[in-house]
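new request in #modeling-help
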Amino acid sequence: SRCGMPEVVLAEGKDTDSLVKIMHSYVLASGRCVASRITSDQVKAVCQKLPDGITAEIREPGGILILSDGTKPIPSGGTVGIMTAGTSDIRVAEEARSIAEEMGARVITSFDVGVAGIHRLIPALEKLREADVYVVCAGREGTLPSVVAGLVDKPVIGVPVSTGYGYMGQGAAALASMLQSCAVITVVNIDAGFTAGAFAARIAALIGEKK
Amino acid sequence: SRCGMPEVVLAEGKDTDSLVKIMHSYVLASGRCVASRITSDQVKAVCQKLPDGITAEIREPGGILILSDGTKPIPSGGTVGIMTAGTSDIRVAEEARSIAEEMGARVITSFDVGVAGIHRLIPALEKLREADVYVVCAGREGTLPSVVAGLVDKPVIGVPVSTGYGYMGQGAAALASMLQSCAVITVVNIDAGFTAGAFAARIAALIGEKK
Amino acid sequence: SRCGMPEVVLAEGKDTDSLVKIMHSYVLASGRCVASRITSDQVKAVCQKLPDGITAEIREPGGILILSDGTKPIPSGGTVGIMTAGTSDIRVAEEARSIAEEMGARVITSFDVGVAGIHRLIPALEKLREADVYVVCAGREGTLPSVVAGLVDKPVIGVPVSTGYGYMGQGAAALASMLQSCAVITVVNIDAGFTAGAFAARIAALIGEKK
Amino acid sequence: SRCGMPEVVLAEGKDTDSLVKIMHSYVLASGRCVASRITSDQVKAVCQKLPDGITAEIREPGGILILSDGTKPIPSGGTVGIMTAGTSDIRVAEEARSIAEEMGARVITSFDVGVAGIHRLIPALEKLREADVYVVCAGREGTLPSVVAGLVDKPVIGVPVSTGYGYMGQGAAALASMLQSCAVITVVNIDAGFTAGAFAARIAALIGEKK
Amino acid sequence: SRCGMPEVVLAEGKDTDSLVKIMHSYVLASGRCVASRITSDQVKAVCQKLPDGITAEIREPGGILILSDGTKPIPSGGTVGIMTAGTSDIRVAEEARSIAEEMGARVITSFDVGVAGIHRLIPALEKLREADVYVVCAGREGTLPSVVAGLVDKPVIGVPVSTGYGYMGQGAAALASMLQSCAVITVVNIDAGFTAGAFAARIAALIGEKK
Amino acid sequence: SRCGMPEVVLAEGKDTDSLVKIMHSYVLASGRCVASRITSDQVKAVCQKLPDGITAEIREPGGILILSDGTKPIPSGGTVGIMTAGTSDIRVAEEARSIAEEMGARVITSFDVGVAGIHRLIPALEKLREADVYVVCAGREGTLPSVVAGLVDKPVIGVPVSTGYGYMGQGAAALASMLQSCAVITVVNIDAGFTAGAFAARIAALIGEKK
Amino acid sequence: SRCGMPEVVLAEGKDTDSLVKIMHSYVLASGRCVASRITSDQVKAVCQKLPDGITAEIREPGGILILSDGTKPIPSGGTVGIMTAGTSDIRVAEEARSIAEEMGARVITSFDVGVAGIHRLIPALEKLREADVYVVCAGREGTLPSVVAGLVDKPVIGVPVSTGYGYMGQGAAALASMLQSCAVITVVNIDAGFTAGAFAARIAALIGEKK
Amino acid sequence: SRCGMPEVVLAEGKDTDSLVKIMHSYVLASGRCVASRITSDQVKAVCQKLPDGITAEIREPGGILILSDGTKPIPSGGTVGIMTAGTSDIRVAEEARSIAEEMGARVITSFDVGVAGIHRLIPALEKLREADVYVVCAGREGTLPSVVAGLVDKPVIGVPVSTGYGYMGQGAAALASMLQSCAVITVVNIDAGFTAGAFAARIAALIGEKK
Ligand SMILES: Nc1ncnc2c1ncn2[C@@H]1O[C@H](COP(=O)(O)O)[C@@H](O)[C@H]1O
Ligand SMILES: Nc1ncnc2c1ncn2[C@@H]1O[C@H](COP(=O)(O)O)[C@@H](O)[C@H]1O
Ligand SMILES: Nc1ncnc2c1ncn2[C@@H]1O[C@H](COP(=O)(O)O)[C@@H](O)[C@H]1O
Ligand SMILES: Nc1ncnc2c1ncn2[C@@H]1O[C@H](COP(=O)(O)O)[C@@H](O)[C@H]1O
Ligand SMILES: [Mg+2]
Ligand SMILES: [Mg+2]
Ligand SMILES: [Mg+2]
Ligand SMILES: [Mg+2]
Ligand SMILES: [Mg+2]
Ligand SMILES: [Mg+2]
Ligand SMILES: [Mg+2]
Ligand SMILES: [Mg+2]
């Protein structure tokens, strides 16, 4: 781990043999190993002959595979609130959740909040009231993080999600509008749930430590 | 006039001599002539020796110059509501207003509504309650038209305004987010107050006609 | 429904299970449910065990699936005219038609008008003479909406369609030229038949109301 | 001259001293020398002490300066027709005209044809009836070359002109729509009147030769 | 045919049923019908039950299918020279050839000339010596048309081809460098062999007519 | 103030009259008012007739003007560390510092750290050891935030700065590389010192509160 | 061979028949023939009936196929050091290695060096100590070449690799940051291992010659 | 100096006071100090009160200012050949020359070679025959480095120069075509004469050392 960051393996684009080797050696060395964006073929390969005493957990959507020897992440005392505008954003939110939990954060979520009306947003925010920091995932025009930042007094991190067709689709407009936002938010790259989750967990831990 | 659209001369980039000639001959032929984005030097040139019986009116911001022989636009019976998110958007809104009024629309406005909170938006919308159609001008992330479209049941036209610095600044993010918007809005080019105002006036007239 | 807009489900990219659940519950709650960009596999899944008393209608191209319990949209009294430049644009036009009809508009169409000559355009426009508002779909250089706007005195909404190869293909040049157009048109995103249809239906209803 | 192409000096961006030296030595060597996009300061410098027997002619707009010792271009027998959509396009058209004339073409022009209606286009085309090849300059959405190509049976070269504001302004949309055009046209870069004029003159000469 | 241009059907993206119908009715009406970018499945469908007396000819690469009742194009007397830099450019060159031949041009070709050395270019040009006009297809950095234009005194049309990986690959750099070229060439869109071939054939016919 | 965020007025692009009015009324209402990117002419106008009891402080570079009636920001207990790669980045860092201080943060800085070697970075980090959160400003290739994030265990916010010429200059490459970074950082728009400073101050306050 | 550069055939996109013909005739003519980016189907076709006395060697990843009649490259005496940031970059590095070896260079490599810490970089550089020139392959933000250039006193060539998702992914950010780098490096296109390897081998040979 | 690279100060964008301070202290510390892209105002400020014993040399174009106490660069024994396509490229070439000379290279140049014909290139190359490495500067379509690389057997570095108007002007097409080039060249950013010169000088020194 570099700088206290647990290794999360980006399975996407890795050849299967290397992936199996990396994950097995990680879990044996450190007790846990998480992969994201893993395909079902890759999962099969990794799980076919798991090292002794290692169990596997799969999370959908997001393609998360967690290997462990029973070791659990050490709770940091901090809480990360994760929200999504739509259902297509959930796979990215799950990526954020996985790394945040690996880093010891308690994660609370509110998915598919919509952007259409304040009536669905208010109860969603209420549900996340205990969050020390927010990760807000949104595609198309990517408005939700800005709206949330106007309503809470904790840091809000925007995650543009690769939805939307046509001009500036696939998360491009969402990234642009988050970067141009009048609200005080910071941003990660399109679909970068991993980075947002890790960044949020780091903040949550710093606040949690103090509680 | 083409298709019942009064001529509005885009002064920007025209050489002064042509502009003077064009405006003077228009106003003599049709009783009124409007120019937008006109510089003070151009205004001086046009107004220096106005044809007999022609008077000039200037509107700031927006650089609108209106020549007339006393003729007034014939009221269409329709009402256009124009809103801006900030003060930098007003010059574009004024362009929309000028053409809409030329086309006989009553124009009601609510400028500098902000995007920060619903508390300033609700009275602004209240003020525009009688509008048959809305023109909403916004820069940076360009959220306002989408928000308005979620709150009214009349057509909403978004006008991205060339404000905002950095990546996708100068109206680019606003255009992108309006085109990607989940709300039902149509869009014109960045700073195209003229087109939005004329389109809105046309709709307002069709509804006004019927009242 | 938000702001009197019937729900149209964008099937594209939704996982089948969620889609079936969403559509079935919508139709039971509101009498009708429309999906666009639905694949044949998704249609199969949705229609396999339709709730009692629900019938399904499919429209090609455009991938429209309409579930209903016999309820019909309430006629708004307005008429939307939809035109396409080519045959590839029809799937987008059908998306516009579906939402407009759901919103109570009468829809009249004239497809594959071409851009090559006025001789095919004039009878096409004649056929749409009763329209209160026009939706004009065009790909490649996207000229048709501007030409139509020069010939009719009703509002014209341009829909760029993702055809054309090479530089600025896939609707990009069409979007650009509609935004730069000298004609008074407003624009929606590439392939956004849904937004154009809904916007047009809203205008048509306002005019129809008055008749 | 390379490949029978007379030298036209692009004055834009050249330092004055080099420009004077280049133009004076060209005109002495070959009897004529043309510069385009020349500023009034540059003109002053070039003309201040003209070599003996050399006279200067200036053409506006376009910033054309022609030095000559009385030598005239040898008529090629071909005719180039140059058309512009607006008045802002004329400076580019003049650049095309200058090089075409240097290459011996007869040039006939029809400027500010508009795009709004066929009624202004038809007489404009009539005026250019004798052209062997057309150069059509247009900004904003750049439709005119495609329209012309649909009405004549001679080759049409499109020249996008750097007008228009907002997204894809400054000739970008015009270039895109000409490249995506369904009509059979070829294109030069934005504002490249020189290239279009030279290309057209070459074609005209080949046809003229034969007459 | 519009403006004396024979119809060439772009098969790409067309659904098979429409394509069959279009091609069969064209060939019956006009004696010949050409399709480009046709897949082998589409060819099978079109040829399965050809109308009586109609024969089919296929050309690879380029996906050209020619139906005819024995009618031949009427020779225009002009000659088009087509050149390619590499072998990947040939499919685009074949598209140019097909339309040029349909329009009555004699077509002479020199493929895979390379860009590496003058020693392969000189004999290639020699082979095309009789051309009235050149179509030069090149991908990657797209230099070849500029080089050819420096060596011949006939018009040269550049066709960027969608080869090359990485930044500005897929013909984008080729298009850019042709538009920025110091040589006198005009350009068509990436892979637009059809437009280049038709434009060249038109020029060749005008010169041929005169011979 | 929205969400506990003090108002910082972006002077850039505002007309002088509005700016004076806004700043004077803010400072009277809330005791302090900060403007950034203010020109010397604007400063003159604002300070010419300051309201009674109001004093002005100017900070260069960054164009910060602070009006106050003696009121000081309430210390939050948190510390923000601000670092820049070069000297050109300082104006953006000063913008971050101003807002952070307004929000009660203690700000410690280390400017012009360079990217060339670890030997200058280590003492710079040492100097910022007490920071609860880092704001790192860098132009050109924008590497510094990623390097810092690899060396500290506090949250790091990257601010791309509009330096660098050529392709992806003016901060574009810096933004891109921060978004693509393997390090766990979040990002704001190019030159958005304000947003980064406010976001950091919010985090610092949450940690400070707990100490 | 042009300019002493051995032919390496880019198999990607070539049709199988041409590829077989090209490779077989090359190897017979010159003793060796290398192809890069070759698929397993293409390998099968090429190797099915190898000319007499020709043997084939395959290298993965990178899709390198080497045919030879036993001839070996003549050692140039120079050494090329090739480094990669991650494992995904190795296929590009292998392409660089193959051409460099064909050109007679000794190649030493250090793959998957990471960017996270100096502790992995120092031994990697130590391993490449004998290199006369470096080729450094990196994706995502592409920092590694700049870092290496700050630590060695030999020329460093950066190769952006098409990894990374989201905005400026697929090597775009890496290319941008290498071009904007404050370090003294030169750059090749994304994934252009071939060009980097050949360029490095040329330099190495010039230095090697002298030793 | 880092890694044996002498400091060259990029004056562009630096405030005058800092620049004077930096240059004076550099020259006193190391005997020489070079600035590039310096304005005449900046030159005046730096030279107004030069430290005792320091002399200044100015080179135009390129805005190079060299301060020295008489110290000369130590000859490396290597030779750098610098070539430009046009006269506008010379300022960038001069930047390359200055840094190369500071690093001890002998620099030989051949400016304004043109791209139009081999007849001007051959003698230009002849003049540079002794170069160990080439820096080739070219704007617009940027062909020259590729052509040179086809004719010499030494390494060639391409420098795109910010000339050319319209689409992909200002060096963008030149950068693109150099990156897409089939020739074996490496590239630096647009106008980055400094980087190219330093890279070339490093190679030249390595070869020179051996001679
Ligand atoms: N979904 C993800 N997105 C971005 N980075 C990731 C993701 N998953 C893992 N990573 C990080 O990417 C870096 C390279 O991953 P690897 O290629 O697995 O060594 C490591 O620092 C991982 O922690
Ligand atoms: N083809 C479409 N294009 C754009 N929006 C659509 C389309 N079909 C449905 N929608 C709208 O997209 C929004 C989100 O859809 P859903 O993800 O189905 O909840 C709803 O407001 C739908 O009415
Ligand atoms: N992987 C590669 N990347 C770039 N160029 C290559 C590659 N492999 C071969 N080449 C060169 O590409 C040019 C065209 O290749 P070909 O199409 O095989 O004639 C030749 O000069 C080859 O040497
Ligand atoms: N014209 C130039 N282009 C690119 N880099 C330069 C130029 N001139 C100086 N540099 C380098 O830019 C870096 C930052 O320069 P400075 O801002 O002066 O510290 C130093 O490494 C200089 O050597
Ligand atoms: Mg959203
Ligand atoms: Mg806004
Ligand atoms: Mg069209
Ligand atoms: Mg036009
Ligand atoms: Mg090429
Ligand atoms: Mg930096
Ligand atoms: Mg990297
Ligand atoms: Mg050049």
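bot summary: Chain C touches chain B at residues 2-5, 132, 149-155, 157, 175, 179-180, 184-189, 192, 195-196, 198-199, 202-203, 206-207, 209-211 (CB under 8 Å).
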